[in-house]
C-alpha cells in the first residue's frame, strides 16, 4: 500500500511539474509579445477535453481608468464572428428553411448574377463578389447606421473579381449577405437569431452583438498605436461589418462555444460536419476552408482555425480535434496580432503532450 501511495505521489509530482513547466513556457512566449503590463494587452486560454488548463490576462483593459484586463474581459472578436454566421446558416438548413446549394437569387432576387452564386460560395469565400473592405467608398458609410439590405446594396453592383467557384479569396461581403439571408429566412434580426439559437443554447451569457452605447460589464477598450503613443480605436458603426465581424465575447464563452460544437448542442453531427469539410474549386483543387473555419495543420496534425481583426482588436483561435485542445487569444490593440503566437502556443502544447 505504501509503495502504491509513493508511486502515486511520484506520478502526481511529475504531472504537476510538467504542467508548471508548460505554463512557464507559455508565459514566456506571451510576454515576449506583450511586454509592458501598463499597455493594452491580451487574454489567453488553453483547454484540454473541454476544461481550461491555462487562463491568464496581461496588460490593461482601459488606459484612461488604469483598469487591468482580466480573464472575464469582453473583447470584440472581429472575423471570428463568421463561425457563428456559418453555423447559423446550417441551423436554418437543418430546420429545412434553406439549402446551402440554393442560389442567393432565391432570397435576394435583385442580386446581380445571383442565380449563379450559391450560399455555399458565400460560406467558402469562393463567390467572387467584391469585398466591401477593399472599396474606397467604405469611409463614406463607416459611421452610418446601415440596414443589412443597405449594406448589400453598397457592394452588390461592383464588378465581380472572378466567376463563382473559380477561386478562393477571403471575403467579408459574402458573410454580410449570409447574415441578411439569415434575417430574411428566419424573420428575426441577426442579433436575435444568434442569441436565441447559439448564445442561449450554449450558455454564452457574456457574448453580444457589439455596441458602443450599451453598458457592457468588463468591456475591454480597443486601441491603436501611433508614433506618439496609444489612441482610442477608430469608431465604426457595427451595422457595417454586421455578420462578418460584429460579435463580442470572452474566453470562457468561446470555450462554451467550442464545447457546444463538440457536444452537438446546436446541430446534428451530420449537419455540423459540413462546417469542417474541405471543399473544392471548379477545377477540382481543394481549398483549406470549410464554412467559417480555416482547415489547416500544425506539424501535419489537422487544425480548425480562425482569427479576427476590427478597429482596436485582434483575435485568434486554434482547435486541435485529435487532442480536443482549444487555444485562444484576444488582444485589445490592433498593433498586437495573436495569430502566430496562438499557433506557436498550440505547437508547444502538442509537443508537450507527446512528452511522457
Automatic annotation (TrEMBL):
Keyword Transcription regulation appears in the UniProt entry: no
Alphabetically ordered keywords of this record: Signal
Signal peptide limits: 1-19
Beta-lactamase-related domain location: 30-334
Record InterPro entries: AmpC-like, Beta-lactam-related, Beta-lactam/transpept-like
Protein name (database record): Beta-lactamase
Lineage: Bacteria, Pseudomonadati, Bacteroidota, Flavobacteriia, Flavobacteriales
